UniProtKB/TrEMBL annotation:
This is Tetratricopeptide (TPR) repeat protein. It comes from the Bacteria. It comes from Actinomadura luteofluorescens. Residues 361-382, 394-413 are annotated as: Disordered. InterPro entries: TPR-like_helical_dom_sf (IPR011990).
Amino acid sequence: MNHAWALLESGDIAGLIRHLRFNAEAMEPGEVARLMEGAAALSGFEDMREAAAALAVRQEPQQLYDFGFACVERGVAFLAIPALRRALEMMPDEPVLLMELVSALERENRHAEAVAALEPRVDALDPWPARYLLAYNALFSGDLDRAAREAARLPAPDGDWAPARDRLARMLARARAAGPLGSRDLRGWHFALGGGVLATISPYGFDEGMTGRYAYTSDSFALCRRTLDRLRLVLDAAGRRPASVGLLPDRSSRIVGLAAARLLGLPAEPFAPDRPGALVVAYDLNETDADGLRERAEGQVLFEHASCWTDPPVVSADVAGFLHQVAVAPWGEQLRVTPGGETQTAPPDERPEEELAAEIVAAEPLPDDGDDGAPPDPGERLAGFVRAVAGHWLTGPRDMVRSPGPVPSSRFA
């Protein structure tokens, strides 16, 4: 506890939040509130400061709820969970408390706990949202059968909930098409939840917690070429032939888009949301303007080379090259180790976009052997997957998927 106060007194708010992530559930809500009151005051978060100050004085359901709500709104939902659970112990039949707890658990990707919280109370609650959330969280926890059963029990929704019903139906249909889905089937679950095809599986640390995702990776021209070759394989397996390549406005996306146009023998032109048959190419959707991409034009395919799984983009790509936490573009600023063992920063590669695209095209797209822990992922396996799910690919809007779903991966601060 003294360590937490020392972090606050030194102004290390990020360090305090990391400390509380691992320790808050064993602490009294009042003590957490006092710490967060100080942290919020230093951060200028008046709503959080007021809620924390009230909870520090009085630990009753209203104060616990207000603090939990503020934590969810301020992006520290893990701090809301113990406070809201304490409030539910005091008022077990209060649906507002339950729904806010489920919201906090979802934000933390603790979907099985959300199911456990909803299950004993769902019959007494309005099915929209309670039973819908039960089905949704069952699916994201990997329990496809339970999700399907609960979805089948949902009555027809009113207009406000119709999009959620349709999204759940699409996810369940995709899961059935991709199945049977195991607990480490990253490609299958990626498709089921977001509708996109994952082109490559990370060969590093598969059995040590990464299960096919990258944490930090320094990208390369060879990996860019490899994901574009896998994109071509996906398009061929699905029987899709784009008419052009749509270039998004950021430099990295234009580089990869120009390389894709060369490899596929297609004309390249600036992205237009309503242009049919376009292959829209992004390097990383978090680094570009994604306006106009949620609803696809006829025959449009969205490819994202490097997709961040810890900070998901606002739209889900139809094909993702690989999943990462942090990726440094081959032409970006690089950290390098000198022959003497020192670390130095190499400046960005400022060559023209066409020249960098040509280097991608010329690169040898050899697969990375990694550390030998990942299962083999030959092209025919990817093609077979695409053929199996092709009828459910490129359907519906490109929804944002906030959660990594039932296939966990280790993440790093």
